[in-house]
User: Fold this.
Amino acid sequence: MKPLLLGLPRALPVTGAGAKRTESALPGENAVLLGTIEQIKLQLPGWEVPTNLSEDGWCATQVRHAGHHCLVITSQTDRGVLYGVFELLRKITLNQPLARWNEHQNPCAPVRMINQWDNLDGSIERGYAGKSIFWENGHIASDLTRVGNYARLMASVGINACAINNVNADPRVITTPYLPELKKVAAAFRPWGVRLVVCIDFSSPKKTGGLDSFDPLDPRVQEFWKSRAEEIYTQIPDFGGFVLKADSEGRLGPSAYGRTHADAANVIARALKPHGGLLFYRGFVYDHHMDWRNPKNDRARAAYDNFAGLDRKFDQNVVIQIKNGPIDFQVREPASPLFGTLEKTSEAIELQITQEYTGQQRHLCYLVPMWKETLDFDLHARAAGGTPVKALVAGNVFHQPHGGFIGVANVGRDTNWLGHHMAMANLYGFGRLAWNPDLSAGQIEAEWAELTFGSDRKVLETVKQMQLASWRVYENYTGPLGAGGLTDIIGVHYGPGIESSERNGWGQWHRADQQGIGMDRTTATGTGFIGQYSLVVAGRYESLKTCPDELLLFFHHVPYGYRLHPGNTVIQHIYDTHYRGAAEVLDWVSQWKSLKGRVDDQRFEDVLASLEYQAGHAVVWRDAVCQWFLKQSGIPDKRGRAGHYTNRIEAEAMKLDGYESIAINPWETASGGRAVQCVVSNGTGSATVTWQGKLGWFNLHVQYFDENDGISCFRVLVSGQVVDQWDAADVLPSNLPNGHTSTRRTVRGVALRPGDEIQIEGRADAGERACLDYLEIEPAHE
Ligand code: GCW
Assistant:
């Protein structure tokens, strides 16, 4: 019982050696008895066998035997016993009493899988926590210790399968030379009940199979898939199956031969069937060369348009893997209508743990509240009773066998797995929801926080406030009212880039112009997307009266002066939420600081540094969005903030020596659209201003650009005295000065007298020209 032994020393520090003893027969003393029902029956002959357990479900009961007390944890399967043991460890760590613990739990759905978007060269698509733990240099990593630890981590929250390579799949993965490598991963997963799954390339029969076709109806292609499956299962008998992304974002698929997604899925599913494998077919199929000029075109329609008509056509071991929303993991989307439409096909919800569009693990953003909104949303499908997404994907509504939950995690080699300490709450939360989607976001957060930080009430309360608010806070300072990505859509999806989504074929349009904003998806005048929902849901979204404000711009195009339900206008809402969001993050910084000494130093400092960075980047977001909408709409912020920065001195307005003024692209990602850079690469520059304000103590915010093509360094001098210096060595995702790299350094508590010269010096390095945006000077309150 590896997990128990690994877990006990921390959980029960005072029990000593006794707790570390395991035996295979009943000892003549009180004991914890772990085993499958069959194993327990042998030890306790008269025992009343639990009959209410599904596969992977477990039960804990108290039994008296031969005068001794036994806590029995059992299941039909080894895996279920393991999950029961992890529940025991959780209870011990949370100081919950065990003496009367009688409980059984069954997982909500059989599919509880992680997808990793890892490439064979060790990089990870949309990964923010270092290199792959699975792959390096084109092969499975030589040291699989982390893989085993990851499997344990997954098992601790009930995850039972993991796909280890990018859905943009390298076809080599299932070729013969790779199978012994995959076998090693399967062996590292197996003790933890995690099945290995891999992503495949639909054109494999041609790319690696020596055929001139990958037509799913070609018997030679069928034979190819059959032989692949046979060979894999010979090596890995408990192999889980394949994930397939076809006909999407340039991946080849059945359309090459005029075949359907069902043809494509079934040819592979049939090859897997004799071995018990599943084929996860991604519902994320859309045309990324759509004509943006056609107002009827709509990427949101794609999943339904592609799959709804094929219900009944898929074999039983096909699972359609559907992203939570109809677009692509945006900060706010409605539930995908496809969930309510498939009645004869197993389906799984795909959630994104890796924070591609929600701050990339540099920003704190606890996603469980967002997932809960989707999971609890009733699509009013054609069935009696409630049909929330969680019941649909679990297969409970239309009685489909292989439903469930798939999370894109993208953990990496960073010691804390996800880069940001707080991001682990998302991975933990995904597993807990996949096991039981009825748990609340608050319950999950409370468990995670206590398991992570211990029982100090002040710590728990602070972490709770931040985590539970964080998704809405992120939404506040990034994207308003369901408008979708205001981020750099055709690039790294991180900082602001308001227009990047427009006038291209990717279809993440928000259609903001000088008059208004939003996608008209109504059936009356728009793209008709709303018509993909059941009548009840469609009726609610179609009408401006009943459409919830937070999704207004997802469904409707409205003028900036349009009034939301509380009476404020869309444009004022944009200003207000962006200012509020940035202020909320700033507040987290002081809340977190109040925990000094209550959280271990390393995590305290790491989280503090991330929150301070986030507070700065939230200002970048706030200013970009507000500047852009102010310019477009011409409607001022009635609170006078947007476009007016009283304490700010633009770098281009300072006295420059060795620095030159440049335009930043996109313009809204620099204050006033401009910044300064060193004239000469590897040269130095200085920007100087004379303090005209009062005598006092001040904080100086230096807004600069920390690109990834060099490590420039900065110094701040006040009347010739150095008050701070630092290297621009952060790892931010661009080698240009823009909204991804704009960041700030705060020099606290600087004494300024009227007439003091404030000078910022930059030394360029390689491609990084020590770019400066502005200096902001505010009175120090601390
Ligand atoms: O969210 C988008 C990402 C792509 C990803 C794709 C998908 C793996 O930007 O990086 O590709 O979705 O889900 O297939």
In short: The longest strand covers residues 742-752. Residues 360 and 518 are 25 Å apart (CA to CA). Confidence is low (pLDDT under 50) at residues 9-18. Residues 117, 125-126, 166-168, 245, 284, 328-329, 356 surround 4-O-methyl-beta-D-glucopyranuronic acid (CB under 6 Å).
